Amino acid sequence: MIPALLFGAGAGAGLWLLLTWAFPPRPALSDQLSRIARGQATPILLAADDAWVRTWGRIFVPCLRMLGLPGAKTEADLRVTGRGVDTHLASKAVLAVAGLLAPWLLQALLALVGLSLAAEVPLLAGLALAALGFVTPDLEVRAKAIRLRREFRDALSAFLDLVWITLAGGAGVEAALVDAAAVGTGPAFDKIRRALHAAQLTRTTPWVTLRRLGEELDITELAELAASISLAGTEGARVRASLAAKAQALRTYQVTDAETEAQAATERMALPVTLLFLGFLGFIAYPAVIQVLNGL
């Protein structure tokens, strides 16, 4: 009874996917009008989707978007890694379908050689593999985003030093930001240059686009930098001391983070030694335990 119910649910989900692909949902007019009324700006960072997603992902992506995927945190992680949202959702769906069908393929191969498993085994294994394949892209993107955010903070510390040096040389705030961003290399400086270029194209102040970039990437230090620079640009505050203090705070945070990772690595290295010691104790105690059990 349970396999029949699961097969029926799978067939219904497949029909729903086909109907969604044939008749894609259209956003409500009220949602579009409310978005225009709020004046939502175009994101600074836009990632292009892979070519295969435009062909095969159309079946799965609309359905997953209707379920509210991905979340706000995952979208920020995708912006940091430079991966398109549709590519991410299509990867989740493809891995889930592959995990669901893999045990049945193994069952078919076993049937060719005269072996077979109970129907519950590939069914339960397929569900477990499908769940694992569905969450694997999220875990991969999250781990990569954590690493890239750490690298961005390292680059931001160097960027602050360059801005501070340029300001000390007598340059203006906007010129100091542009010159400092032009010197650096790497993904972090590329994103900062893109934000400053967007400010020039839209005729807005650079600290506004830097704040938006910090919100899109979920990097609070960049938003705090934009707030400090805005004081110098709008109220004429002396910002050099503030930038130097923020750069020093970022370096202190980097050192503390490195020490924490080193301590965690040391604890992980002690785990195999502990397991080896416990195994050695069990090997020594095994004869005595057998003698006691046989004596009972």
Q: Your description of this structure?
A:
By secondary structure, the chain is mainly α. It has a domain of 147 residues. It contains twelve helices and no strands. Helix 5 packs across helix 7. The protein is flat. The two termini are 48 Å apart. The mean pLDDT is 79.
SSE map:
Elements: H1 2-22, H2 29-38, H3 51-56, H4 61-66, H5 72-81, H6 85-112, H7 120-168, H8 173-183, H9 187-202, H10 206-217, H11 220-234, H12 240-295
Helix pairs in contact: 5-7, 6-7, 7-8, 7-12, 8-9, 9-10, 10-11, 11-12
Distance between the termini: 48 Å
Which structural class is indicated by helix and strand composition? mainly alpha
DSSP strand count: 0
Q: Helix tally?
A: 12
Hey, roughly how much beta strand do the residues contain? under 5%
Q: Determine Rg (CA atoms, Å).
A: 28 Å
Listing every helix as H and every strand as E from the N terminus to the C terminus, the arrangement reads HHHHHHHHHHHH
**Mean pLDDT over the full residue set:** 79
Q: Summarize this, please?
A:
This protein is mainly alpha-helical and 296 residues long.
Which descriptors apply to this entry?
12 helices, 296 residues, mainly alpha
